[in-house]
Design brief:
Blueprint: H1 2-31, E1 70-76, E2 85-94, E3 100-102, E4 107-111, E5 117-120, E6 125-126, E7 134-136, E8 141-149, E9 158-167, E10 177-186, E11 193-196, E12 199-200
Parallel strand pairs: 6-11
Antiparallel strand pairs: 1-2, 2-8, 3-7, 4-5, 4-9, 8-11, 8-12, 9-10
Length: 202
């Protein structure tokens, strides 16, 4: 009987070992410090993966800007000027009742008092070579920076520009957008006039 009783005690102890082991693990897990979790901004809790292609892209108007939708203004920009070139900005404002898109650099003609074509923008681009497209809601403006070489740097006959004509309609097919100007160019030779791409007015 003693051996049998002892055997039962040993068997009972063996059967209880897994329970003790599990209790020991549970106690250890409860006592271990929890990892610190920083509170993330609400925006970062939103999944960043785009649910479908193009979801983050801006909604652009279907129509490209036309000359008739815009008003032009020539603004002096001394901050852009250099020793040989005058800094300017051509500001275009959407004066129509519908939004439109623009991209790239506008065409610009420099005209005399009698409408004579005295100069035009050259083939160079001022600023980024690959500009981003933009949109103009009614009342919004975009601008293109420009540099005009001072006529004093040339050996030429000066002529006075009284009007700039900006061409935005595709292929220059529109009537142009006229704005008053007071610039000096060479009347009998080429004048360097570099225009940048249109960007939103900040």
């Amino acid at each position: 009987m003693l051996m049998t009783w002892t055997g039962r005690i040993a068997l009972t102890a063996l059967l209880m070992l897994p329970t003790f082991a599990l209790v020991g693990c549970a106690d250890g897990a409860a006592e271990a410090p929890e990892p610190t979790v920083a509170s993330a901004p609400a925006s970062s809790l939103t999944p960043t993966a785009t649910p479908h292609a193009g979801a983050a892209e801006p909604v652009w108007p279907n129509d490209r800007c036309q000359d008739e939708q815009l008003a032009a203004e020539l603004v002096e920009r001394p901050d852009l000027s250099t020793a040989t070139r005058e800094g300017l900005a051509i500001v275009l404002t959407n004066v129509s009742e519908r939004s439109c898109t623009y991209s790239g650099s506008p065409g610009v003609l420099l005209l005399g008092a009698d409408g004579t074509h005295l100069a035009s923008r050259d083939d160079k681009i001022l600023g980024p070579i690959e500009p981003e497209a933009g949109a103009l809601a009614p009342g919004e403006s975009a601008q293109a920076e420009a540099l005009l070489t001072y006529v004093a740097t040339y050996d030429c006959t000066p002529a006075t520009v009284t009007t700039i004509q900006v061409l935005v309609t595709s292929d220059g097919a529109g009537p142009g957008i006229d704005a008053p100007a007071d610039l000096q160019v060479c009347g009998d030779a080429w004048t360097d006039f570099t225009v940048g791409s249109l960007v939103p007015v900040s």
